[in-house]
Amino acid sequence: MTREFLPPTGSAGIVCEPTARPHSIDADAVVVFLPEGGVNTGAAAELDAATGGMLTRLAAAGELAGRRYECVPLLAAPGLRAGQLLVVGLGKREDLTAGVVYRAAATAARHLASRPRSRVVFVADGSWTTKQVEQAVAGAAVGMVGQDLYRAEPKRTRFGTTIWTAAPVEAVDRGRLIAEGVNLARRLVNMAPDDLYPQSFADECATVAGRTGLDIEIWDEDHLVRERCNGILAVGRGSIRPPRLVILRYRGAGRTGQGQPAAADAPHLALVGKGVTFDSGGLSLKPSDGMLTMKCDMSGAAAVLAAAATIASLRLPINLVVGIGLVENMTGPAAYKLGDVIRARSGTTIEVHNTDAEGRIVLADVLDVIRGEQPHQIIDLATLTGACVVALGQDVAGLFTNDQSCCDALAAAARAVGEPVWQLPMYPDYDEQIKSEVADIKNVGDGRWGGAITAAKFLERFVGGIPWTHVDIAGPAFSEKSRPWTDGGGTGAMVRPLVELARGGE
Known about the structure:
Structural class: alpha/beta
Radius of gyration: 24 Å
Strand order of the largest sheet: 8-9-11-10-14-18-15-16
Strand content: 15-25%
CATH class of the largest domain: Alpha Beta
Oligomer: single chain
């Protein structure tokens, strides 16, 4: 049985040929995954036999060790119709996870995508779980895509066709949809800020909604005024490009194949994203080095849009609402100032001590709008603080919550797909640090210390007691240098965990 998946965005096709023998397929390359000491098992054993024991001989000579993410290309391997056999290490078999398989497949795809390839075969291993197959398919489709949107000669070229063998058809289809979501988020983050600004981002949301069946509302400046979204309006005042608020809805509950109608109750899950399409710091101006990558300050918005699109494409049985606050934080003559007091939509007054702490002011209004939907839980994503990067480094997202069970579920989903997260405390003492002498609260804490936590405590004031988890993705959302499994730039951080959470860990 052969099944071909052609993504609606025009990306390369993915073909599933679950029973095909990889050595008999005419292709540019065949990719096989090798755990340490695994030449004589699984897919590697089949290809070893097809090549007359070539893998066994190379392993005995120490050329094939199966070290994690190590790529060994074998050109013109005997017994194969493909021009190249690429062996990718997985590390120790007992340490194999969906996250390891995702990165290994992405590493292989990135290696091969350095030049045009018409057909590339990936061989799944029969010992993998369905989730591991899904993540491998997603990783391969993400790894072949670079950040070079504007280069005349891209460094990465998508394969014409990717063929997966020894893999369930449904798992390949789901993996392809997950990859589309991750690549959507990456593309948006990698766009130049002169191309992606509040209105054009809202237009992107409308395009995605039309393609996936999401319902959409876009609040323009007049609507924001009517809704008293004074935080969003204040941050956006310094730009000639006015702010926007996007609300997306997906009603999938009841789609169980039983013919049941969609549930009409409140959303099971609400996602909120910070969408500062460029952050100069405002009047608290960033230095040039700190401003260079600030096109990525909308990574939270990109992630929740991509997650919603993927959830809708997968037709998951869940009701979802998404809120995205879109602004440019600039220094124009009407820019908001230190000492200003903003009355947020909820009625809470905010004294401005730093215009570069703008994301939380935007999210204050978005969270208030979304809590009006009465969701069962809220998750917000934001590149919120450099303090979180200081605490956890560039690869780990910080978690903050008012409901431990909801936070645990999100952390478990992240672990299941291989994205590292770590929870930080939310002790009541931190509330004292954001109290203002002239307003209800101020937009920064006292001094430099605990900045990621005081920012989370600020956001907590606007969720109204609804179970809520804040995810600070300031570190993992954007990579300033390439890794073996991904080009630099936007990473699509937290898209896969959000989809996994919506799936309920199935």
